[in-house]
Amino acid sequence: MHVDESAIYKTLKSIFGFDGFKGDQEKIIRHLLSGGDAFVLMPTGGGKSLCYQLPALLMEGTAIVISPLIALMKNQVDAIRGFVDGQEGIACFLNSSLDRGQIQQVQRNLLSGRTKLLYVAPESLAKEETSDLLRQIKISFYAIDEAHCISEWGHDFRPEYRKIREMIDLIGRSPIIALTATATPKVQSDIQRNLGIQDAAVFKSSFNRPNLYYEIRDKVEPEKEIIKFINQNPGKSGIIYCLSRSKVESLAAQLELNGIKAAPYHAGLDAKLRAENQDRFLSEDIHVIVATIAFGMGIDKPDVRFVIHYDMPKSLEGYYQETGRAGRDGREGMCIAFYSYKDILKLEKFMQGKPIAEQEIGRHILAETVSYAESNCCRRKLLLNYFGEDYPQDNCCNCDNCLHPKAQFDGKEEMLLVLELVASLKEHFKAEHLANILVGERNAMVRSYKHDHLESFGAGKDHNVKFWGEVIHQAILLHFLHKDIESYGLISLEPAGQDFLDHPHSLMLTSQREFAEGVDDDEEDTPVPQGGGGGGDQVLLAMLKDLRRDMARKLGLQPWILFTDPALEDMSIMYPLTLKELAENCSGVGMGKASKYGSEFIKLIAKYVEENEIERPDSFRVKKAPKSDFRQYIIQSVDKGVDLEDIAAAKNLEMSELITELEAIVHSGIILKRLIKYVDDNFDEDEVADVCDYFREEADSDDLDAAVEAFPELDEDELRLIRLKFLCEVAN
User: Fold this and answer.
1) Residue 526 has pLDDT above 50, yes or no
2) Greater model confidence, 164 or 43
3) What is the total count of domains within the chain?
């Protein structure tokens, strides 16, 4: 489709308020306008939405945007309607949240040709009535957002996403654009193959987010560390991710008790409360949301200033996407994760019972997370390498390892040992197996391959397995070794590694990171990362933010949909007094948005300028806790005598997760009498008596680790349940 050159830039400025494109946006848009398929890999904050929103407004027909979350659809529709004043039907969504009357209005908008963007969930797309409706209209193209959901190797796989191409063929083929912020080369290949767009033009943006600061902290008193960090960053919006629902609720309650405006968010909460908590965060009534990974994909809040991982996530893809929710406006974004290897062991335990191939994939992906957490190398370099991108600098100056580098040593001999071992083996093996050979670990696998007879066996016994794992990891970063993801992480020698074997030379490697057992309260505070706010009249800026919040609340919108922080900062510097000045010279503000929301801001600025006798710049320049319903359900179900297995299944929990919830309930002082009966009915009487006697007579506390050592024949979950019986009967 031919589009007039001036129309593209006119729409960019008049609708979206921008003077120019970022990165590959223009190439992607032109390719889509010409009718081609596209695969777009663009990190969070890179401007993916514009790549399909702008061409949808220019092309004949309606663009179908397939999106995974209802909240994400509403968010984007509100944003488009905010850009385009007076055209309510220009963007719509079709999902289960609509009533019959609303669905009929969407249908009328579609059939009349008013709608240029229709957001739809894959489940809705699969319905016969949806496909019947869409066959009646001209479809300009299909946009598949969050396309990593298609791949089984992706961090957020959704089976219904794999049927999208089938649905498209049923409705009628048009160009396809698949977009994602996170995809390894394997995931990308899987997405393209599943959608049948192997010949699509591929647009890859750099994964580097230079404004994000990355840090890993030892998981020692994490609650205390988090409260201290938030108090050092007052008024800033942040997300804290936890793996379990119980930790989400207890941490949110603890933050509230310490004077921090926070709320929980997880899939077990009542849908209404969950939506309320999200809206409170988006409208800035609260500053911190504590959540499971169920939160985040559905929000588009550009001014999240920190993302904290209370627990390390299951994959680096998940970690990258979650940290990517910080600093989407290109400003300050602090990403801090608390790491303990015990958490990794728990994640491995969750994999038990799954198919062997799935367990292998899961363990491999988890091993990458461990390598990242324990590494002394530049965090940015590690992340980019994981996504197949080289980071040329040795020091990014914006992560903990670069700002506080660990000691280095000449690792020539150590590297030679590793490379010689890999070169000597007929088959390929994983990093852990290679490390076991070097330290002289005579385990079953080493013996079965007779690797305890190798010359390299025990050659590195002066160091531990973690040390050799780190050397292997640095060899991969140097392209001396290759880790094959397709084969679950098997290691092979690269030409550069052979060259180092043939011509060895001095090679500086980073010393192994040692994770501390404790934290000194007097230790130096966290360094201030790069990125951060602009100047301007801070009094006026505060007034503008208050006005934005009040207006947003009345309109039922998120504050940034009215005007972003950079736009408000431009106002506080340039003092625009007309809608034209506002539209032409403030970042991200077009005439439509200025007309729709700008009048009150102009009035406030004019009054402020007059009262304070402000001299405006000669010319404008543009800058570039308590019990939740979820726990109440568990308490009531246990009291009714429902089996724990059935409660876990009803709430889609692993048994260990349910036990964590039960522990929180019991530790709050509630006695679950039916839980006592459950343990008595399902466990050996003598074992129960022995464990209870141990807690009553021998144990210094209810410490689980000590109990595991005392009763190695019982698994951890069994011990936890018996301990709960003891607490209910005696300790409470």
Assistant:
1) no
2) 164
3) 5
Distance CA 8, CA 552 (A): 30
Look at residue 516 and tell me if it is in a domain.
no
177 & 150 share domain:
yes
DSSP string across 674-698:
HHHHHHHHHS-HHHHHHHHHIIIII
Q: How far is CA 563 from CA 33, 544, 579, in A?
A: 29, 10, 13
**pLDDT surpassing 80 at residue 177:** yes
Take residue 175 and report the two structure tokens written for it: 């160009």
Q: List phi, psi (to 5°) of 54.
A: -65, -50
DSSP, collapsed to helix, strand or coil, labels residue 410 as strand
- How many residues would you count in the chain? 732
What token pair was written down for 326?
């910080």
Alpha-carbon Rg for the chain, nearest whole angstrom, is 28
Distances (CA, A) of 689 to 90, 175, 685, 731: 69, 68, 6, 15
| Three-class secondary structure of residue 563 per DSSP | coil
Q: Would you say 262 and 237 are in contact if contact means Cβ atoms under 8 Å apart?
A: no
In terms of domains, do 197 and 270 share one? Answer: no
Residues 587-633 pLDDT 10s: 767 676 788 889 999 999 999 988 888 877 654 443 334 445 677 88
Alpha-carbon gap, residue 16 to 11, rounded angstroms: 7
Average pLDDT over residues 515-537: 40
Angle at 664 between CA 660 and CA 668, to 5 degrees: 165
Does residue 617 lie within any of the structural domains?
no
DSSP result, 114-132 = --SEEEE-HHHHTSHHHHH
Domain that holds residue 60: 5-204
634 alpha-carbon distance from chain centroid:
29
Buried b (16+ CB within 10 A) or exposed e, 561-596: bbbbbbbbbbbbbbbbeebebbbbbbbbbbbbbbeb
CATH number of residue 178's parent domain? 3.40.50.300
Confidence category of residue 701, pLDDT binned at 50, 70, 90: low
Q: What is the 3 state secondary structure string of 346-367? A: HHHHHCCCCCHHHHHHHHHHHH
pTM above 0.70, yes or no: no
Instruction: Read off the pLDDT of each residue in 269-273 and give the average, rounded to a whole number.
Output: 86
What CATH number is associated with residue 704?
1.10.10.1390
pLDDT digits (tens, 9 = 90+) for 279-321: 899 888 999 999 987 665 556 688 999 999 999 988 888 899 8
Any domain includes 371? no
Q: Does a structural domain hold residue 402?
A: no
Q: Which run of H or of E encompasses 91?
A: strand 91-94
Is 504 within 8 Å of 480 (Cβ atoms)? no
Q: Is 440 left (phi over 0), alpha (psi -120 to 50) or beta?
A: left
DSSP character for 731? I
Asked if residue 545 and residue 477 are part of one domain, the reply reads no
Domain shared by 60 and 150, yes or no: yes
What are φ and ψ of residue 83, in 5° steps? Answer: -70, -40
Name the DSSP letter for residue 628.
P
Domain match, 473 and 552 both: no
Of 78-87, 509-518, 576-585, the range with the lowest mean pLDDT is 509-518
Q: Do 600 and 724 belong together in one domain? A: no
Q: Are residues 386 and 465 in the same domain?
A: no
Q: Name which of 336, 321, 331 is nearest 379 in CA terms.
A: 336
Residue 569, domain CATH:
1.10.150.80
